Amino acid sequence: MPATIRDIRARTGLSVATISKYLNGGNVLPENRVKLQAAISELHYEVNEIARGLVTNKTKTVGVLVYSIESLFNGTLLKYIGEALRSLGYGMLICDSSEDEEVEAQSLRFLVNKKVDGIIVVPVADHSAFLKPARDAGIPVVLMDRSLMDEEHDCVKIDNRMAAFRAMRLLLDNRHEKIAVICSQVEYTGIQRYKGFLEAMEQAGLPVPAEYRKCGRHAMDFGYQSMKELLELNNRPTAVFMTNYEITLGAVMAVKESSFRCPEDISMLGFDDLILSKVVDPKMYMVVQPMREMSEKAVELLLERIENSREKKTGEKKFNEKKSEMPVEIIMGTRIQEGNSIRFLG
Amino acid sequence: MPATIRDIRARTGLSVATISKYLNGGNVLPENRVKLQAAISELHYEVNEIARGLVTNKTKTVGVLVYSIESLFNGTLLKYIGEALRSLGYGMLICDSSEDEEVEAQSLRFLVNKKVDGIIVVPVADHSAFLKPARDAGIPVVLMDRSLMDEEHDCVKIDNRMAAFRAMRLLLDNRHEKIAVICSQVEYTGIQRYKGFLEAMEQAGLPVPAEYRKCGRHAMDFGYQSMKELLELNNRPTAVFMTNYEITLGAVMAVKESSFRCPEDISMLGFDDLILSKVVDPKMYMVVQPMREMSEKAVELLLERIENSREKKTGEKKFNEKKSEMPVEIIMGTRIQEGNSIRFLG
DNA sequence: TCTTCGGAACGAACCGTTTCGCTCTGTTAT
DNA sequence: ATAACAGAGCGAAACGGTTCGTTCCGAAGA
Q1: Which ranges constitute the DSSP H helices of chain B?
Q2: More confident residue, B310 or A299
Q3: Domain assignment present for A239
Q4: Are residues B260 and B278 in the same domain?
Q5: Whose CA is nearest the C1' atom of nucleotide D10?
Q6: In sequence order, what are the beta bridge partners of B142?
Q7: Does residue A257 have a pLDDT over 50?
Q8: In 3D, which of B24, B103, B108, B98 has the Cα closest to residue B67?
Q9: A222, part of any domain
Q10: Could you tell me the residue range of the domain that residue A173 belongs to?
Q11: Nucleotide of closest approach to B54 (CA, C1')
């Protein structure tokens, strides 16, 4: 039903090859240019990406594999990734691994099978085995947020350990000593942040009793429950550090619900300011990641890899081939969202 | 690089046509079956969906166009839609319209251009003009959550007016009379729920003073702000009805932060229980939509439409053609999540 | 004037499938 | 014994583009 390149030929008398050249920005006589432009708009011609894909072996689609599409963190990344891709004409095929390594491996195969040009992954597995199908098919992969243990990969993330370590300054400089942590221990990111926390405490010469260490799931209700327990301790901490958005949200709920006030009775330092700071009183101190920039960097890196792999196939050689073939880890900076959820202990 | 059907031919001596038939479940001699199966697994052959798509005009991909991928409501829908599609071998191409009609129209064209087999939309526009490209291309569309004003379309949703109306019973039966509402007026859903609220109040013969009507954006901070204002009124309401998740979340924050207690000082009735009820104390009364079932229904309906449109093209006629050609509106039931956020006013 | 050269257009092959129409078997009914 | 038929396999023509190698042309250089 839709017009094809051959309809354009019938209309203009030009050959299929010439029309294709025009469509791809090649040199065509000015007079033919206008004829073509006219025919194209009259017939509402649009190139058939499928047919093009068959010969170029490109689908102008990238796969994005996240561990949970409903999590606000993933959702935010997806939004920015999607925008960046769209502006370049790329579609975004999304899979949700439901925090399950099995599903993740399966989804990756699915994406490979769909012949996406590249894949962005926020991984749940911590080793690279599940990426094999992509590697075999020559499909570039860029990781976000989390690295893998066994092998270096293209990756865009923050220095989680350092970010946590530095953020702890806020509490320590305000003379807090009894500091608890609520963190997730299931994924790379959470572990790193926990390490940063422990190092900061150790360096400050402060103990962290077992009941101050709440390590569990990456979930709002875990944060809620943990904070409740902390507030009920006889030896209550004066400050709590929370290492991700979901946990922070739950913990905030718990404090608000208690008779304790923040920051008078309990100081709070959270992670990943997504919307909370616009709403909650007092405004939270938070470690924030540049999610938009991270997404854009990931897309940029991925597309560069895609471009390179295409060139390699065609044997094309550029002298200004400055880009590395090696895995690149891009470490983004973080900043502290100022607030007044931390009390100065004189 | 990957094996093609011709490699299989070389290996088995069978013709391309026969191999294709086998791949699509056609009749092939048992002996050839085993030969084919062996060759396929040895060569790691997998059919090239692109090439197949070129001739079948199907991509096994559906587009999903939501108004905000980061909103938890959309995210939850996407999760279930994605699962349903995946189990049927379909990929999910996602676009975010950022609650902008212009972007929405553009995204729809993008999806059409990508030759998706069908499209699921949670629309932001309230008229059907933006769907024209899909209609022209013969691509089925199923709406979710929101209808359009000018025309009936395939749609899966709840009866928002009725759900709100019925939910109000909870407050009215508990003898509440000073009831405020915080709602979003920007989209179909919010308007309907607001209507339901007003009708319930009217039927109960209760007035709704202007300062009890908080109509604004579909956002957490709007809920937060509105609730704060309500609590500061001299003539404070005894109960508040909140008509979506974001607003409910914000409002809960505001109450928790105030010196007022729920339900002693203020009763609350929310909408869309996504996670809140697992965390917040007191447990909230909430109107809940069957989001999983809605998603599955939408996918089911869409795939049925896709199937039908394929048959129409091939002129295939089935006598058991029971399915309607007319637009179908599937109205799902809602239920009330019990809690104790509502006080009985003796 | 005769070559040389480069830009524009062209024809045809190709990408990896599906599908149409045909042939070739071997079985069943007459 | 023969006609009719069904099942399995085959070759070739699509599908709608890209691209390679070639031809054609006019302008520039010798």
Answers
A1: 5-12, 16-23, 30-43, 49-56, 72-87, 101-113, 132-137, 160-173, 188-203, 220-232, 245-257, 276-279, 291-314
A2: A299
A3: yes
A4: yes
A5: B15
A6: B120
A7: yes
A8: B98
A9: yes
A10: 160-289
A11: D15
Task: Say yes or no: B185 and B148 in one domain.
Answer: no
Please state, for a pLDDT cut of 90, what percent of chain B lies above it: 82
pLDDT tens track for A67-95: 999 999 999 999 999 999 999 999 999 99
Q: What is the pLDDT of residues B228-238, one digit of tens each?
A: 999 999 999 99
Strand partners, B306: none
Nearest C-alpha in A relative to B72? A70
**A253·B279 Cβ contact <8 A:** yes
> From the alpha carbon of A17, which nucleotide's C1' atom is closest?
C10
**In this structure, is residue A342 part of a structural domain?**
no
* Pair B166, B180 in one domain: yes
Identify whether residues A257 and A203 lie together within a single domain.
yes
- Residues contacting residue B166 through CB under 8 Å, at least 6 positions apart: B196
Is residue A52, in this structure, part of any structural domain at all? no
Q: Are residues A319 and A229 in the same domain?
A: no
**pLDDT value of residue B102:** 96
Work out the average pLDDT over B46-75. Answer: 94
| CATH code assigned at A263 | 3.40.50.2300
B32 lies in the same domain as B130: no
Exposed (0-12), middle (13-18) or buried (19+): which is B4, by Cβ within 10 Å? Answer: middle
Looking at the complex, does the CB of residue A253 fall below 8 Å from at least one CB of chain B? yes
Domain count of the fold of chain A: 3
Distances (CA, A) of A21 to A7, A24, A25, A198: 16, 5, 6, 61
Q: Is B209 exposed, middle or buried (0-12, 13-18, 19+ CB in 10 A)?
A: exposed
